Amino acid sequence: MTALSEIVVTASRIQESISSVSGNITRINQETREQVGHTHINELMQRVAGVWISRGNGQEHLTAIRSPVLTGAGACGAFLLAQDGIPIRANGFCNVNELFEANTEQASAIEVIRGPSGVTYGSNALHGVLNVLSPEVKPVGKVTFEFGANDYLRSKLIYGGERYRADMHGTRDGGYKDESGFDQQKLTLQRHVSAEQTSHHTVLHYTNLNQETAGFIRGANIYRDRGQTRSNPNPEAFRDARSMRLTHRYTNDLGASGELLVTGYGRWSDMVFLQHFLPGQALEENRHHSIGFMSSLHTGAFVVGLDADITQGQLAETQARTTVGSPFLVATIPAGQHYDYDVDARTIAGFLDWELILGTNTLLTAGSRVESVIYDYTNHLPVGRTRADGTRCDFGGCRFNRPASRSDDFLNVSTKLSLLHDVSAALQFFGQVTSGFRAPQTTELYRLQADQSVSNIDSESIRSVEFGVRGFGQRWLLDASLYKMTKDNFIFRDTNRRNVDNGETRHQGIDASVHWFPNQTITASLQWSLAHHEYDNTPALSGSEIRGNEIDTAPGSFGSLQLAWTINPTWDAELEWTHLGSYYQDPENNHEYPGHDLLNLRLFAQGLLGWDWGLRIMNVADEKYAERADFAFGEDRYFVGEPRRAFLSVTIPL
Predict the structure, then answer these.
(1) Nearest CA-CA partner of 491 in 73, 46, 19, 154
(2) Which of 69, 139, 480, 573 could form a disulfide bond with 512, CB atoms 3.0-4.6 angstroms apart?
(3) Residues 6 or more apart in contact with residue 75 via CB below 8 angstroms
(4) What is the CB neighbour count within 10 angstroms for residue 31?
(5) Strand (E) or helix (H) holding 329
(6) Sign of the torsion formed by the C-alpha atoms of 266, 293, 285 and 336
(7) Is the separation of the CB atoms in 353 and 417 below 8 Å?
């Protein structure tokens, strides 16, 4: 049985017991990650209540943390996705698929904070934080080979000593859909040196993805037709993405004065993909590189921090062929360059956390963060709704609209007030009132369409109230929380193709995680969420009244149950049930996906013939389902769930 004090997390940038955290946090440890053996991050995040990573094709995904699945140019800005506390992408330059730029497959742990966490993390920690932690530097050596359905091959190598460690893996997936699949490589190199009071930790992350992408299949309930589920309407689609991050963390134990942490970093990413989902199928090229630091001083009852980041980013969109479609589309979406711009971004922030002990069992925490974001945008093409050569399109102008070079700045404040009460050493209650924000993404400001020549949008903001309980007994472990959130200035593209910020939404629900240990050989784990997400006004997302409607792609219930059995010292087995409830596919709530339930089976053999073996059978019941359902352009669209498939792995010690 694991006591609360034995679960270590990094919610405040330093390692601390989960029992000292006055808010929710979930940690997936290395043992769980290895047992799951995820081929896509969706499979691993089934173990966290309140989180749904919706699976796209290949390694693509969309994120939901106490939220609907959010889409659109800046949707990724609602979540702070990080590795070792450093955002995977710079503020203002997110990508909805950016989790494939983190080495989740070889992480020591993944931590998730649900709801706003803007005081510690700043912009983008709006609906939640997902932080991937690099593996521990220690003597280790092993290699893993894995084989599976659709010509799936993966190899992993881990080798480390007292001061150095290397983790790398390569994957080839032939793809379930026709003319799809991907090749992916990830590398993590680490060096750790420590003295009596100080330590230096250097980490290099590199990722590369070459993907042949399959698009939605279209037609009502077509995901149920196995004769159509392998079809790929977009065999020409692809995505190539590379990223690198170099970090150096300095820690100084100041004794009675506290602890100082300073992490410097450099960040680089480069992505090219075909926008097969849009008329004209233009090619997008985006890249950015950054330098920055994150620092905090933990002293007594106070935590003081200062963060800064400087980023240079570029985006270009070019269409190679004439648009196919109506005369209007052909005229307004011409071949050639659509956008070509640079953005220089500067972010600086300071924060303060203060703790006050009330009596012997209660802790009050208050905190605030002030953050400034400045964008300097330079346009390299003619201003307005013209072709790249300056000539005008028919029907009033081209679809794309390039604003004149300009600067924008945003100043945001987030706050936190929380209370943690220990009923006993085994039971805690907590409550918190928090706020979060996200500055607009650069694509929302400068990648305009139709008659919008200036995007006067402001930052999104969210307010949250939460109450929770954590506890454990001899045979159980409980973590549950009840929340209600209100979001203002929700940014979206309206029916006139303008980027506006007048959306208002409400979010409420309960997330619960229960672990039960009836005896030495059986473990049952349940992660469950009940949620309601609705529009609180009628933004111009639709031509009809939608206030009070459920937000699309927001299931009211979802979760998973795992039953694990230690058969003997060599063999272990796990049966997993995952549930995704029904949800609407459109803001008008006229089209609905019924949801689905899946069964997965995992078998493990440790030390068999001197090696460790694993067998995973996914979708045991061969359920016909959709990973994501959508309704757009007058028709149902689906990312199809794959049928029953098996994966075999073997790990050899070095």
Answers:
(1) 73
(2) 480
(3) 62, 96
(4) 9
(5) helix 327-332
(6) negative
(7) no
> What is the tens place of the pLDDT at every residue in 487-540?
999 888 887 888 888 889 999 999 999 999 999 999 999 999 999 999 999 887
Each residue's pLDDT tens digit, 279-323: 999 999 999 999 999 999 999 899 999 999 999 999 999 999 999
Q: Is 86 helix (H, G, I), strand (E, B) or coil?
A: strand
255-284 residue pLDDT tens: 888 899 999 999 999 999 999 989 999 999
- Residue ranges of domains in the chain: 4-653
Which residues sit opposite 350 in a β-bridge?
306, 370
User: What distance in Å separates the CA atoms of residue 26 and residue 47, rounded to the nearest whole number?
Assistant: 9
For residue 402, what is the DSSP state? B
Q: pLDDT digits over 213-254, tens only?
A: 999 999 999 999 999 999 999 999 999 999 999 999 999 999
Cα–Cα distance for residue pair 399/460, rounded to 1 Å: 26
Q: Coil, strand or helix: which one is 44? A: helix
| Distances 369 to 115, 265, 348, 409 between C-alpha atoms, Å | 16, 21, 11, 17
Sheet strands (E) in 495-633? 499-516, 522-535, 557-566, 571-580, 583-584, 592-593, 596-608, 611-618, 626-632
Residue 451 has pLDDT above 60, yes or no: yes
DSSP element (H, E) containing 118: helix 118-121
Q: With contact defined as beta carbons under 8 Å apart, do 313 and 342 qualify?
A: yes
Examine the pLDDT at 24 and tell me if it is beyond 70. yes
| Residue closest to 506 by CA, chosen among 482, 483, 530 | 483
Q: Write down the pTM of the prediction.
A: 0.95
Q: Are strands 198-212 and 164-173 parallel, antiparallel or unpaired?
A: unpaired
The pair of three-digit structure tokens given for residue 618, joined into one six-digit string: 């996914």
pLDDT of residue 141: 98
Residue 331 CA to its chain's centroid (Å): 37
Is the predicted pLDDT of residue 4 greater than 60, yes or no?
A: no
Class of domain 4-653: mainly beta
CA angle 487/488/494 to nearest 5° reads: 110
Q: What's residue 3's pLDDT?
A: 55
